[in-house]
Design a protein that fits this description.
The protein has 442 residues and is α+β, with helices and mostly antiparallel strands. It folds into two domains: 4-153, Chloramphenicol acetyltransferase-like domain (Chloramphenicol Acetyltransferase), CATH 3.30.559; 170-365 and 380-440, Chloramphenicol Acetyltransferase (2-Layer Sandwich). Helix content is 36%, strand content 27%. The chain has helices spanning 9-20, 38-51, 89-97, 135-153, 181-200, 228-240, 245-261, 311-327, 330-347, 415-432, and strands at 4-6, 25-33, 57-62, 65-70, 78-83, 108-115, 121-129, 218-226, 268-278, 296-306, 356-363, 369-370, 373-382, 391-398, 401-410, 438-440. The chain has a seven-stranded mixed β-sheet with strand order 10-9-11-14-15-8-16, with helices on both faces. Strands 5-6-7-2-13-12 form a six-stranded mixed β-sheet, sandwiched between helices. The chain has a three-stranded antiparallel β-sheet with strand order 1-4-3, with no helix packed on it. The longest helix has 20 residues, at 181-200.
């Protein structure tokens, strides 16, 4: 199925970021036990490229507008990398996050990492243009790639591959009332309210050590994984405290930042939070995760952190605020405002958009075993070099273990400083779940 259509507003925003924010990619990482042959992976990629129309297209700029255009494109780029020690995979991810996607040629590229001192250990890393994917659909795509690898390796007769129907721009999928005159006025009111909040109550952020132009910025990942016991205790504690993992993560990150920057004479500190929310369950008909598209939006919240506030008190407040914004339709209105907010960030690159940002896909419901291949871990991270000074995490829970990928912009903050902040954050998570076991790095 060919694609020849104008990008929607959110898709346009992602392409603008891809061109002007150094990079704005979504990188998904799978750690896989077993022997993945490059020739088999190549065949699997060819199949998914045929199955997903967006993978067989590119983006063109015509008459000051962006369009998806199907064409006789080449195969999806596949690169093979050998590393000696297992922890070196992070360097590969860092390189991928900081390498621009040439959207005029392709919208996804793949790296297969082989660990030389552990022959059956591999990392599958995909870097995808954010206009065609979000955390959930990128994780689902990895499962699909591994499924085809299994079928090819086992010599199964792969059934006829049907091309999936292309999903229209997200704005076309929203409830009709979101395009009413009344709701258009509410969008303007929301934009003015965000601007007013940022002007009257500018949120504090992590101290930026060195400001440079966007073109000179880079980002890095700090990878942490909680043990199964720690993960489940933390999730259970959230339930007991009548809150969500998303809200608890937001609270912990904001309190971590507050402790870093609070002066002795301050009895409260102003902070803000970006929460990313999946829209699939809020659309009719519901869109499946296997359809490659971006169906996530963000909600902005402003808070005052008092010295004696507890994590759970703050988490419940965040949960209630998010529910209120969702019920009032703000979750849809932010889609239309994203381009304006990003343009502001690009116009004033030294202004931090928010104190913290949390994107949590929750429990990942894909298989663990694919024939001789075993998926041991899967997670994702966004390349946010633009956001100097923001404390950012991308979370996913697979096989009962929670993975937390923190990303930060350099040289705004050096790695040693950020690793200490991350360790403080993880330490707080462990304290409140009454378990100190944690796996880091590998």
């Amino acid at each position: 199925m060919a694609i020849n259509r104008k990008l929607g507003q959110l898709e346009q925003t992602m392409e603008i970021l891809n061109q002007r924010a150094k990079t704005w990619n979504l990188v998904t990482i799978s750690r896989i036990q077993g022997n993945i042959q490059a020739t088999v992976l190549r065949q699997s990629l060819d199949i998914i490229q045929y199955r997903h129309p967006v993978l067989n297209s590119h983006i063109i700029n015509s008459e000051n507008s962006y369009y998806f255009q199907s064409a006789v494109t080449g195969k999806l780029p596949l690169r093979l990398v050998n590393i000696v020690e297992i922890q070196e995979w992070e360097a590969v991810v860092n390189a991928e996050m900081n390498q621009v996607i040439d959207s005029s040629k392709y919208l996804l590229r793949v790296v297969l990492v082989k660990v030389l001192n552990q022959p059956n250990m591999n990392y599958l890393i995909t870097t995808t243009h954010h206009a065609i994917t979000d955390g959930l659909s990128s994780i689902q795509l990895h499962s699909e790639i591994l499924t085809y690898c299994q079928e090819i390796t086992e010599g199964q007769s792969i059934p006829v591959v049907n091309t999936l129907e292309h999903i229209p721009p997200i704005e076309k999928l929203l409830p009709a009332w979101t395009n009413s005159f009344k709701n258009k006025l509410s969008r303007i009111a929301l934009l003015l309210n965000i601007a007013l909040q940022k002007y009257l109550n500018p949120p504090k952020t992590l101290k930026v050590q060195n400001y440079v132009p966007i073109s000179q910025r880079a980002c890095q990942i700090i990878h942490r994984q909680l043990s199964e016991e720690s993960s489940q205790k933390f999730i259970q504690k959230c339930r007991q405290e009548n809150t969500t993992v998303q809200s608890a993560l937001c609270a912990i990150l904001m309190l971590t930042v507050s402790k870093q920057i609070t002066k002795s004479y301050e009895d409260h500190i102003k902070v803000s939070c970006l929460s990313y929310i999946d829209l699939r369950q809020r659309l009719k008909p519901r869109i499946n995760a296997e359809n490659m598209t971006v169906l996530a939006t963000s909600l902005m919240g402003f808070y005052r952190i008092k010295n004696n506030i507890s994590i759970w008190e703050l988490a419940r407040k965040i949960k209630n605020d998010l529910n209120k914004k969702i019920n009032q339709g703000e979750i849809f209105n932010m889609i239309f405002l994203a381009k304006h907010l990003i343009n502001f960030s690009l116009l004033f690159p030294n202004q931090v958009s928010a104190t913290i940002s949390v994107s949590n896909v929750g429990k990942v419901n894909i298989p663990r075993v694919y024939g001789e291949l075993e998926l041991e871990e899967i997670s994702f991270v966004g390349s946010h070099a633009l956001y100097a000074g923001m404390f950012i995490v991308h979370a996913a829970t697979f096989q009962e273990k929670m993975t937390l990928n923190f990303v930060f912009s350099q040289p705004a903050i050096n790695r040693q400083t950020m690793e200490k902040i991350v360790d403080d954050c993880i330490s707080d998570m462990m304290k409140i779940s009454s378990d100190l076991s944690i796996i880091g790095g590998a």
